[in-house]
């Protein structure tokens, strides 16, 4: 069951907090593609555990995912909402459908690109809008939408450095990390 993956991930976060390695105000998570689904589920199931989330090229609407791009080929892995039994299972963890108004969500940076041929950018776009409308937190819910970028990689080194700089800057900002005094 896919939920086991999310439960294990959340248990690891809880363990880090319980054992004094960090606390929720200093814990950030990041994932892309299928890892984007993982951190999307984590942030909707246990938002209080995290200060910041980077969610890149994610699969987030598990009810409609198979209707876009090549995702129909993933039905053996995830299931299909066209099947009533699988619909219930998918709905129970679909990050997009588990956003609850009035919840204090962590800061989130969604990243997607218009040239993604695997995971439709609609997932990140609509999740950004839904979280912005639902959150009771003043933490930012942001979308970085790249043109001529997508899932496949092959980016020039300069673009990779620029992207990583944006992600790390967001995390440092949201975790309250200050630059050392000279």
Task: Estimate the mean pLDDT confidence.
Answer: 91
According to CATH, what is the class?
Alpha Beta
Number of E strands: 4
- Can you tell me the overall shape? globular
Radius of gyration: 16 Å
Helix content: 40-55%
The domain tally reads 1
Tell me what portion of residues adopts beta-strand conformation. Answer: 5-15%
CATH topology: Rossmann fold
What is the CATH homologous superfamily assignment? Answer: Alpha/Beta hydrolase fold, catalytic domain
How are strands sequenced across the largest beta sheet?
A: 1-2-3-4
- Strand/helix succession: HEHEHHEHEH
- Uncertain regions: pLDDT < 50 for 5+ in a row? none
Which CATH-level-2 architecture? 3-Layer(aba) Sandwich
Description:
This protein is an alpha/beta fold and 182 residues long. It has one domain (2-175): Rossmann fold (3-Layer(aba) Sandwich). It is 41% helix and 13% strand. It has helices spanning 2-18, 34-45, 75-78, 84-93, 122-134, 157-175, and strands at residues 28-32, 52-56, 107-113, 141-146. A 4-stranded parallel beta sheet has the order 1-2-3-4, sandwiched between helices. The N and C termini lie far apart (51 Å). The model has no long low-confidence stretch (mean pLDDT 91).
Brief digest:
41% of the residues lie in helices and 13% in strands. The chain has 182 residues and is of the alpha/beta class.
